[in-house]
Amino acid sequence: MTPQPVVYTAVPASDTSGVLSGRMGAWIVDFFVIGALWAVFAVASLVLGVLTFGLGWMILPVLWPIVAVIYSGVTVSGPRRSTIGQRMFGVELRTVTGQTAPFIVAAVHAVFFYVSISTLTPLVLLFGLVRADRRMLHDLLSGLIAVRRGT
């Protein structure tokens, strides 16, 4: 029995119109949401550090990336397929077949995003500007596509 080839359904171009500007606005909103979540966990870590004679403070240097990846993974893999910022700007992330992304794919997408934005800024936006489907490098690497909500 021969394996069947994977067939991807194309997302209509109208589904991706305006998502780049929405994604930029969503990133700003999500930055503040992640900052608020980080502050809660940082305070908890500081208290835990006092109770554990400083051992709880060891998580502080890596707390921001942990919170950001878990936040993105949980929200994008959830039923709304988007972070809080993406919901505010009418954007959602799907697999290229139109399904909801599993948690691990959404978390890896976030890792790819933060690595690409920290190393390629502002060149990371060029991928989205030159592609008809408006997918950026981290979208291509993780197999996700950003579309307008409700389409």
UniProtKB/TrEMBL annotation:
Q: Which residues form a coiled coil?
A: none
Listed A to Z, the keywords are: Membrane, Transmembrane, Transmembrane helix
Query: What InterPro entries is this protein classified in?
Result: RDD
Q: Where are the transmembrane segments?
A: 24-48, 55-74, 103-130
Q: Say if the entry is tagged with keyword Transmembrane.
A: yes
Alphabetical GO CC annotations of the entry are:
membrane
Localization: Membrane
Topology relative to the membrane: Multi-pass membrane protein
* Pfam families with a match to the protein in the record: RDD
Residue ranges annotated for the RDD domain, each copy included: 22-143
Protein name (database record): Membrane protein
> Which species does this protein come from?
Alsobacter metallidurans
